[in-house]
Design brief:
The chain has 89 residues and is an all-alpha fold. It contains four helices and no strands.
């Protein structure tokens, strides 16, 4: 027998989760049921929430990408000794 769970969720989170579920051919209800079954079966709660990038990190990444595009990067090395020798030259 099915039962109803009522939870309060941020509108954006709900919309995003529905989009993810739909892209997998699932409804949000099916996705939530699958997660709750997983929690019940494994007795574990696995949560993941990526940290948003800070403006400083975005700027650093942009600088690195420019350096890579300009070819201002070292060649790949197979071992630390070759890397150190290149640094010392």
């Amino acid at each position: 027998m099915n039962t109803v769970i009522s939870v309060k969720v941020d509108e954006d989170v709900k919309a995003s989760a529905q989009e993810v579920a739909k892209s997998a051919g699932l409804t949000l209800s099916t996705l939530v049921n699958a997660y709750l079954r997983q929690v019940s079966a494994t007795r574990r709660i696995d949560l993941y929430s990526p940290e948003p990038m800070t403006p400083k990190l975005e700027k650093l990444i942009a600088e690195v990408e420019k350096s890579i595009q300009a070819g201002n990067v070292s060649k790949p090395f197979d071992n630390a000794a070759d890397f150190i020798a290149d640094l010392e030259s």
